[in-house]
Amino acid sequence: MSYPPVGENTLGLLAEVRASRSLVGGARRLVRPENPHRASLGTAFIGIGASLVCGIRAIYGFSWFVSYWPEYPNPVPALAAWILLIVVLATAFVTASIVGDRLPDWMFSVFLALLATVIVLDIVAIWELHDVGRYATASLTAAMSLLLVITLRRPSEILISIGVIGAGLLTVMLVNTRLTTDNASAQITSLAFAVLPVVIGVMIVRGFRSMVQVELDRVLVQSTVSAPRFAVGMLASEELARLDLAAEELLDSVATGRIALPLRPKTASVAASLATELRLHLIEGRRETWLYHAITESELLGRSVTLVDRGSLAGLLDANQRDGLLAAVWLLVNDHAKKTTVRTVQVSVGPIVATAPVALNHKLKVPVVITTTGVQRNRVDPSTWDAIRRVGRYSDSSQNASLRVEIECFVDNPADL
Amino acid sequence: MDHILKERDRLLQGTARIYGLGFAGVALLCLLVPDAVAPATYLPLVPLFVALVFAQYRIGLSRSYLWILLEVLSVLGIVVSISALNPGGLTPAALSAIAQLTAASLASVALVLATDRVRIGALVGIFVVVTVVTVWLTADSRSPIATAGLLFLGWSLAAVTGIWISAGVPQAARRIASIGRAHRAERQASEIEAQRRQSARLLHDTVLATLTLLAHSGVGVAPAALQQQSADDAKLLRQLRLGATPTPLSSGGYNLEPVEETVLGTTLESVKQRFGRMGLEVSWHGTGQVLLPSDVLDAFLLALAECLENVRRHSGVREAHVTIVDDATTVRAMITDAGVGFILDDVDSARLGFKESVVARLKEVGGHARLFSEPGSGTTVVLEVPR
Q1: Is the C-alpha dihedral spanning B347, B348, B351, B357 positive or negative?
Q2: Which residues, listed in sequence order, are joined to residue A396 by a DSSP beta bridge?
Q3: CA angle A411, A412, A415 (to 5 degrees)
Q4: Which residues partner with B382 through β-bridges?
Q5: Residue B72: in which H helix or E strand, if any?
């Protein structure tokens, strides 16, 4: 019988448990990069759009090829290049919709090799004309057809591929074409038209993915809004079940004599750690509020938001107030164009302020203070104020050139419920 | 939905910026080809390019029409300057630069204008104006049909990209929302399951007691008794795992009747016996018969047992005194030993399990605990719970 190594330190164990909570259950699995269903969150659609753009480009390129037909010294290689390219594009489009999320390495290699063949054939056909920028057709479309696999491979791989193709085309242009005032601009524009769309496409896909990621994070955290006043995190029951099972196995081994009494020090320390963890889970588990879970479970909030809520008063907020507070914190952390500047937000809830005379409906007054760093007051998104208004009446000020909001939040007295 | 629309706009704006700046750079390269334009042309081009770059940079940050207007005006200004200052016909380089600016760089505004009807209307208007002006100004050097075709191609590529991204976002948002719903259900299920396991408190208390014995290698307890106790607890855990919520009647030295009110005395006796087996002699003083609600009793006994466990482990003596007194409102237990004691500040109370097992438990039922100790003169813990 073997047990996973467990730390001796009670508080260390606590930290481990907390850390593991940031990766949450089933739905969170969908977000992980290795998951095959990730492309279905809209990127497949973006991939089809990229193919469409590529198709328009191919028609444009082909019409130039037709108009240059009489000028080719030997049009056969160029025609072969176009036939091959059309076959490759059609196959790649069909394959992309079948393989789903990720193109296997060998398929990607074959795809790149075929594109290289197309480029070589096209260059061979126009070599004698000595103006690559003007006469290249299939090769430029081939470079741009990396757009077809833009959602199926890592951005770095696409960028490296287009970089190599671009450098290759540039070299051919420099070797083959004597640059003059009249033909230099054609070389520049042809090269740019082959390379830039792919670079922009990579940027779009990357931006789209991060947008989906952020939105998923927000939606997953949003479920805390309907949580009870004190809640266990998503992992708590899994953890408890795991600990119960480990305890059962240990006790069973002792009962059946598989583990001899008195216990060896190692097994004894396993028992001690199990007891400590169980105790923590049973007693401390329900001390945390929805807000704590929201912050720890979110990748985005977890990084930059700290919560001070000694009395666990956040649990008293109703669903609308919670929604507002979460949205406000979210907007403060996420809503800015420059992702490089570090924004931090501290939310402190409580302590309860005695109101005299007694507030309407015997409500309790809980002050909520949002302190930030790196958030300029005039840069705050207007919808943040709407969100804060849903929590309660607020007043805002600047502290160390950053926003500070004090909210007067009225909540139902739990004693009245 | 609002959030993701904002994210979508940010994505489109960022893309428009890169798109515009990239092709503006290409146009600039074309203009830098020697003899591309008459030297005097560069004079108005420099400020116009600065304005263009600034407008494109701002489009990345703001949805305002102002920057789009500035971008359109600077591109048209560049086209007008080039054609006005090169009356003898445009070079291929100048034509390329104009094509890059009007059909690609300026077309990037289609990305941010493709999101709703009003903006698409503005997009069509801008496209018509730019096409008419460009075709008219370059008619001498290139056929109007070629120019218009190129512009149409460039603008439709950008518009398709913008519309496509805009259409992809609601799709993704719907899928994400359904994942969110699934997650909420999962969270509720997790909450219920955790509640079920946590509410099996009596069970866990006996398991914890046994685990604590095992943590001390089971020294001082008869192996047969410990094996019996382990077997009972393993059985209870198995029942819990299989879906039942077992309420153990007794386990080892415990007596765990799940009744509303239990007489303290009967269970105190079992605690005493349990520690007796482990080699700690407990002397009881004061009241032995107090009625307590079962949850208060649980907390009280657990806290008491935990304190005795600490005496057994840390005090160095084999005898402890427990005095229980009660009045109209509270029941109070005083656990005293004459052991080594400690300096309160030196020992992290969390390490003794004091905070979790004693303080937190009592607090849950409205009670509290106080700890007194001094090196060399023993330790006293006072536990209080309301009746």
Answers
A1: positive
A2: A405
A3: 135
A4: B334, B370
A5: helix B65-85
List the structure tokens of B199: 């509410």
Residue B201, min C-alpha distance to chain A (Å) = 8
Token representation of residue A308: 């001070």
Residue of B35, B49, B52 whose CA lies nearest to B92: B35
Residues of chain B with CATH 3.30.565.10: 259-387
Question: Helix, strand or coil for residue B125?
Answer: helix
CB contact under 8 A, B215 and A10: no
The residue of B64, B190, B208, B357 whose CB has the most chain A CBs within 10 angstroms, and thus the best one to mutate to test that interface, is B190
Q: Which two tokens stand for residue A211?
A: 């947008």
Residue type, B245: T
Which ranges constitute the DSSP H helices of A128-183? 132-135, 138-144, 155-176
Residue type, B171: Q
Q: Which residues of chain A have pLDDT under 70?
A: 1-40, 232-235, 283-287, 335-341, 355-361, 415-417
Q: In whole angstroms, what is the distance from residue B264 CA to residue B352 CA?
A: 25
Q: Which residues of A touch B212 (CB under 8 A)?
A: 271-272, 275
Residue A298: half-sphere exposure toward Cβ, Cα within 13 Å: 29
CATH number of the structural domain B259-387: 3.30.565.10
Beta-carbon contacts of residue B128 (< 8 Å; ≥ 6 apart) = none
pLDDT digits (tens, 9 = 90+) for B181-221: 888 888 888 777 777 776 676 677 778 888 887 887 776 67
Closest Cα in chain A, distance from residue B222 (Å): 9
Residue with tokens 């914890």: B208
d(C-alpha B107, C-alpha B23), whole Å: 10
Show which of residues 313-332 on chain A sit within 8 Å of chain B, judged by CB atoms: 330
ipTM confidence:
0.73
A398: number of Cβ within 10 Å: 13
Tokens representing A248 are 């059962």
DSSP β-ladder status, A344-349 and A305-308:
parallel
Tokens 């943590």 correspond to: B215
DSSP class of A32? S
What is d(CA B205, CA A22) in angstroms, rounded to the nearest whole number?
Answer: 29
Tokens representing A306? 């700290």
The first and second tokens of residue A304, run together, are 């930059």
pTM attached to this predicted model: 0.68
pLDDT, one tens digit per residue, over A349-371 is 878 877 666 666 677 888 899 99
